[in-house]
Every structure is written in structure tokens, then in C-alpha cells.
Design a protein that fits this description.
Order of helices and strands: HHEE
Number of strands: 2
Largest sheet: 2 strands, antiparallel
Structural class: mainly alpha
Number of domains: 1
Oligomer: single chain
Strand content: 5-15%
Distance between the termini: 27 Å
Shape: elongated
């Protein structure tokens, strides 16, 4: 099973892909492959950020103390 990469690593890879695509040095086939990889990375980053946002939103002040409430992951993701 592939180990999940960090958000920062995914963002660095995405930046590199954008630079390669912007260079104009790739063939159409290479560009399409890089674009597809970039879309997958962007979706992964978005999912990670959405998860972090949900966790932060669940921090609630109760009786003068902050607590983290559990939430259920839904299979559908917001767009």
C-alpha cells in the first residue's frame, strides 16, 4: 500500500508540474500525462485541506475548555 504523502510534498510536486507545463518543452502526450497527474494531486490537496477544515470547525468551546469532537467522513466530497 502506498504511504500517504504530506500536503507540502504534494504542493511541491504540483508546482513542479505547472513549471514543466508552462515551459512549452513537452510534447502533447507528455503534457496530457502531466496535466492528469496535476489534477490528481490538486484533488488530493483539496481533500486534505477540506479534512483539516472540518477538524478545525469541530473545535468547540465547552465549559471553558476546548475539545475536538469526532466526525464521520462522508464518501462524497464538497466541490
Amino acid at each position: 500500500m502506498k504511504e500517504k504523502q504530506s500536503l507540502e510534498d504534494d504542493i511541491k510536486k504540483l508546482q513542479k508540474l505547472v513549471e514543466e507545463l508552462a515551459s512549452g518543452k513537452l510534447t502533447l502526450g507528455e503534457s496530457l500525462k502531466k496535466y492528469e497527474e496535476g489534477v490528481k494531486l490538486a484533488q488530493s490537496c483539496s481533500a486534505t485541506l477540506n479534512e483539516a477544515q472540518r477538524k478545525v470547525e469541530l473545535l468547540m468551546k465547552k465549559e471553558g475548555k476546548y475539545s475536538l469532537e469526532k466526525f464521520e467522513d462522508s464518501p462524497s466530497q464538497e466541490k
